[in-house]
Amino acid sequence: MQINNIKLDYLGHSGFLIQTQNKILAIDPYNVSARVPKADIILITHSHYDHCSIKDIEKISKPNTTIIIPADAQSKITKIKEIQMEIIEPGDNVEIAKIKIQAVPAYNTNKSFHEKKEGWLGYIIKTDSTIIYHAGDTDKIPEMRSLTGYGKHGNQFIALLPVSGKFVMTAEEAAEVASLLSPDLAVPMHYGAGIAGTLEDAKHFVELCKEVNIKAEILEKI
């Protein structure tokens, strides 16, 4: 999918590929295909195996790839050679080649799979006039209210939201978040990998978004 000057592709589960004019970013690659190119920057939301997959990170990294991670993923990432590692926590900001990356909280409110104390992450990625929010593994949390202005001032605001339930938001809860954030486009994730969630959850999310006049779209996995 082309959005302004960036290309957004779905890698499956919670994984995405963002290609700018001069950099390739990957988020939470898991069971990625051989067609996925090498990334300059890899963002990891948390240390669970389906988000911090060493074999997939090795597959798409190259010498001097920057891998941005929360602290508890450090011991896993040190197994990978010739990469640059940057450890961040919610509220931190990183800028690489004019791409601004902000770490935001991601956690459960009514279950214990992703506790707030872990300091696990979602990401805000800003490049030129495009802003992408990858929510990470999360429920609807109060901190999301601070993101409601991103669609203003001529920006294209894209929200990537988990919809599977069990470990994260349900499709209904994710649609509530989409209504709160009012993005230009909402994209469902965290389904279809045999871990939690199905394509039906993603379709249900899209229909719920349409009911509140939010554009939502399922992206095909590359």
Brief account:
This protein is α/β, with parallel strands linked by helices.
Structure, described:
This protein has 222 residues and is of the alpha/beta class. It has a single domain, classed as Ribonuclease Z/Hydroxyacylglutathione hydrolase-like (Metallo-beta-lactamase, Chain A), CATH 3.60.15. The protein is 16% helix and 29% strand. It is built from four helices and 13 strands. The strands form two sheets. A seven-stranded mixed beta sheet has the order 1-2-3-4-5-6-7, with no helix packed on it. Helix 2 links the parallel strand 6 and strand 7. Helix 3 runs parallel beside helix 4. The longest helix has 13 residues. It is globular and about 50 Å long. The N and C termini lie close together (11 Å). 46% of the residues are buried. The mean pLDDT is 94.
